[in-house]
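Researcher: Go.
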Amino acid sequence: MVDTPSVRERRLAQELRLLRAAAELHGKDVAASLGWSPSKVSRIENGRTGITEADLERLVELYRVPEVQATFLRRLAPAARPRGWWDAYADGLSDRFANLIRLEAGSRALRCFAAVVPHALVQAPEYLRELIHSTWEQPSSAEVERRMLVSRRRQELLDPQRPSGGLQLSMVVDESVLMRTVVPGDPDRDTVVWREQLERLAAVAAQPNVTVQVLPLAAGLPPVTSGSFSVLESQATRAPDVVYLENKTRVFFIDSEAEVHRYTRALDLLGEMALPPQESLTLLTERLRSLGGSREQVRPPTGSTGQ
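Model: Structure:
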């Protein structure tokens, strides 16, 4: 495991080394041409430092990189991408969580297994509110609203009307997730929260860029013991390159090629064990129908204030 998602930066460093060699230039030649120190060239090519948009463009010009390949390099370089909405929340986000949001935004697709709760990209507002409160460490009203706002902005990735199209999401959700009580001791609110969440899942599953499958309890033990996890596919390479595991306090990244492959294969097996998408949607619809009635006004969770 690593603390920061570095696989794409390493790929960029490798590409830049190859391009310099193809241009028959030594590191000292590049440094002299661009007014850099030789150590700066070395650090960039070893992936030990990031590269700015301006510096990347100077290398592209120096190496006479074709536009198609230059576009590929720009997609690999996080520092060369435009600033995102998350920068406005930098003071309230951990470095790892900010890296996660940035990495998702730079990805073409996300595949995941939801073993305990639905993935963050598909959580309905009141389900998320209950999830935030499900801890001994009660956040302030302002913190709750901040987390919910960040979640809503993060979920915009799935919008198929985005200029670049919606993120391709493929989720396998364990059936136990759909059966778990969210608000113990308050069946009325639990029903309302679950109704909203199931409506959200059904709506998302109907989008052209989203696939939702339910892993039924009858399918047996899943081929993983790590719980929930997600695999991201790079826009540049169009291949899975980063696994992340997200919990209440930390985000863990895995970018070893062998380990990413193992998680990808686990998702393949989970998809084979799970119900097909249409049957999964039918199950969600039946579960929603079993809750009965029309949606009620959602009451704030017990113990919250100012919600």
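Model: The chain has twelve helices and six strands.
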